[in-house]
Write a structure and sequence with these properties.
alpha+beta; six-stranded mixed beta sheet
């Protein structure tokens, strides 16, 4: 036993989220600068895991991990994060994954991504952030569908529309996707596959826009029409949190004048969305 440490990145919404042949899936958009960092101090004499009230999901997942390996006792879990909750940035999932990694580090447990998935989805639908690369992931059943690898270089100009969404409550609402919607998801999946294969962000951005457009029927973003115009103008794709409050425009980071393009887009978005916080992610 030792002081255990673990960390996990957040996401900016999802590149794509929907169903294919009745199977729920999402394609992750990992953001390394958004992080949860966990420290675990093991205490054999303590019953269960002690943690602040806001991190109850991480606590329960951690206790399930100890139970899985037949470990008695518990300890103190401390989580620091820069990921705001209820926005669609994978805050809860990142906390859970970081906590499980810290506890596993403390007890030298052979923790796999599959184990993390199994424990995470017991708490809530999971964002697939136990995988650092971009993946297609069944967020209800906690199963990896496909790994795409690292994203090509990108810039993402994002904004937070305010408020919060409760992921558990939102995912309990049945999603009614038409046949056309499901065709759009298939097309989006194919575009993502092509984008990663050819290392072209254009196709990935196009897929994200298709998915964001379908999501307007499920959790509409009032800013969508303006984002649509700006994305078209700046040759980017629209990314949204399908069960959150953030939205943004994904740009190709390989453009020779990408810094200038990003500056112009930030200025245009600041004018269009006065008073709304705007952030740049790479």
């Amino acid at each position: 036993m030792k002081l255990g440490k673990g960390s996990c990145n957040g996401t900016f919404g999802e590149l794509v989220q929907g169903i294919i042949e009745e199977r729920p899936f999402l394609i992750t958009l990992p953001i390394p600068s958004l992080r949860s960092e966990a420290r675990f101090v093991p205490e054999p004499a303590v019953s269960g895991i002690r943690v602040v009230d806001t991190k109850i999901k991480a606590k329960k997942a951690g206790e399930s991990l100890l139970q899985l390996f037949g470990i008695k006792g518990g300890g103190y879990l401390d989580i620091h994060t820069n990921i705001p909750a209820g926005k669609g940035l994978a805050s809860s999932s990142a906390d859970i994954v970081a906590a499980l990694r810290a506890i596993a580090d403390s007890y030298h447990l052979p923790l796999t991504k599959e184990m993390i998935s199994m424990l995470a989805v017991k708490m809530e639908p999971s964002d697939g952030v136990m995988y650092e690369e971009a993946v297609a992931y069944d967020y209800i059943n906690g199963q990896l569908i496909e790994s795409f690898g690292a994203l090509p270089p990108f810039n993402l100009v994002g904004l937070d529309l305010g408020g919060m969404v409760n992921t558990i409550e939102f995912n309990e609402i049945p999603k009614k996707y038409s046949q056309d919607d499901q065709q759009q998801f298939l097309k989006a999946y194919e575009l993502v596959t092509k984008g990663f294969k050819e290392k072209k962000l254009t196709f990935i951005g196009e897929a994200a826009t298709l998915s964001a457009r379908v999501n307007q029927k499920i959790l509409p973003k009032p800013v969508f029409p303006i984002l649509d115009q700006l994305a078209h103008r700046f040759q980017g794709g629209i990314v949204v949190a399908h069960s959150g409050t953030v939205a943004g425009i994904l740009l190709d980071g390989n453009l020779p004048n990408s810094d200038v393009v990003v500056s112009h887009l930030i200025r245009e978005m600041s004018l269009a969305f006065k008073g709304v916080p705007i952030n740049l992610f790479h």
